[in-house]
Amino acid sequence: MAESKQIIEQFTSGEYKEGFVTDVEQEFIPKGLSEEIVRMISARKEEPRWLLEFRLDAFRKWQAMPQPDWAHLDMPAIDYQDIIYYAAPKKDKDRPKEIDPKLAETFDKLGIPLHEREVLAGVVAVDAVFDSVSVATTFRKTLSEKGIIFCSFSEAVKEHPELVRKYLASVVPASDNYFAALNSAVFSDGSFCYIPKGVRCPMELSSYFRINAKGTGQFERTLIVADEGSYVSYMEGCTAPMRDEQQLHAAVVEIIVEKDADVKYSTVQNWYPGDAEGKGGILNLVTKRGICKGSGSHLSWTQVETGSAITWKYPSTILKGDYSSSEFYSVAVTNNHQQADTGTKMIHLGRGTKSRIVSKGISAGVSQNSYRGLVRMGRNALNAKNFSQCDSLLIGSLCGAHTFPVIESLQPSATVEHEATTSKISEDQLFYCNQRGIGPEDAVGLIVNGYAREVLSRLPMEFAVEAQKLLQVSLEGSVG
Amino acid sequence: MGHGKYIDPLADARSKPGMTTSVIAGLTGNLYQVPAGERLELQFVVLPGESRDIDLSIDLTGPGAQAHVKALYLCNGEEKVNFRILMHHRAPGCHSTQQVKGIAGGCAQVHFDGTIVVAPEAQQTEAYQENHNIVLTEQARVQTRPQLEIYADDVKCSHGATVGQLNPDELFYMRSRGIPEAEARTLQMLSFLSPVVPAGREEEVEKAVRSL
User: Fold this and answer.
1) DSSP sequence for B47-110
2) Which of B153, B185, B212 is the best residue to mutate to test the A interface, defined by the most A CB atoms within 10 Å of its own CB?
3) How far is A221 from chain B (nearest CA, A)?
């Protein structure tokens, strides 16, 4: 018993390695949120009129909306007037084309190469976002030879306004929900990606988000368009410094998958989760949605959620094209005072559409971890199929694990299956490992990794290694 | 719920002065309390033509208490059948099962909303919930919300829910062996329902299945 207590203590003391602050000169806009601030952000980014109108419209809608409270979360009140909505590192005028060495160093420290060099497991193109601006996008030339557009959102607005205008808010309208409306009003930067017809993207594309400045929030927007028959694998990572105050992160990700295209979207979310007493941390309130627009299209979500004080995130797919398919694989780990309310929505509209949901929750400490999902079979979803599996693992007696799935069927030929289990690591499993000479701590690591394996194996190689390490740090040695 | 913390709705109601047990029952539907070592068994049969709201709140208050709920429904018209089951484990070592199965035809509307809540002190809980539905017609509508809220760690809890149609492979198998389609379908439905048919009511259920 004493031993297991000690192990739990060790587990809760798992350190956050990305918690440093980069000392770089930054420019801010004044604190607070008003029409003026929205105009200011737009002006600073030299945006066209239609985008400003879009922002103002979203802002007005946001003002009329109440903050949602249906999630199984103990959400602190957010003072929207106490946040700086735009912070950018100052550019050194002598070297306008180069990245500030301090920034390069920061991303290097995080393991994100901004120089175009081959990394261990293959080539990855990166768009690095530092607070409110994208500081670098690598491999743009190599990609553009194939006709692939991969750049920061601001550049896309300037260089490809017709594409941005066509697809922006076509999946997540500005009035979709409270946080999406807020993002639409004040979003600063993010990534834009367009894969032309029939092109298979030769490398993994990746966005890396870093919050650095104090008292700011990050509001980025990602738009991915995969044209007919194309393929892309997209990864997203994020970290933030350790601070006592909570910081807001409200992002929107939109994915459009045309006929026969295939998009794989992977996230390893490692925002600062707050300290052991639940002080500080990121409020991660994200809207992610994709649409399988054409027939035979495919969208796959894979996420590993280990950070954030509060996670509110439901990557969803609208299966509009006939015979389109989607998958959602998730591992969500909560520890200490973290809270997560995460899951997915699969809206089946087309005939013969298929979806699969595998969600693995792990809660420890005094955290609360919820799965919330919706599977809807529309009237025309002939022979559509869904399978969902949501498992929860509890470590320690003070945490909670919850499952809130909703299944709606309007089509008799559709099949929906849902199953969920909740349990702790069994004494038998631990005993089995122990008597074979595997220490309790390693045994837990082994069992948890085995438990999450189905999801981890879906991650691109570069991410799988990182995710496994993260899981180990977050969960080393925890015996219930 | 809207909050991340464990809330005991009944304790909240009880703590208000002047509130009697019957009022609490009115608040949360039919309230059953199962004390230590006792066993509660409930069975429901909803036959075609019958709209029903089955609203249960079962409280396992003493160690080792058990509750088992079985329900079956058959619809072929404009019935509205609603299940709301709250299984609240408050004491250690309790065991509960819920099995709700049914067939929706006509333009029936069926709604299942089942929750298992396991309080922090209810260790060694075993709780299982199943809801399986077969939809026969385009107009019928089934919505199911199986939910788990668990605040203890030494638990074995699971739930399963399905919405689907009669298996065409099974149907083909039987028809290829000379069983007429209507009969084969009846057999399929009867075998689907058999785990929840109460003893002594087999004939009644079979008659109802044949009428679908």
Assistant:
1) -TT--EEEEEEEEE-STT-EEEEEEEEEE-SS-EEEEEEEEEE-STT-EEEEEEEEEE-TT-EE
2) B153
3) 27
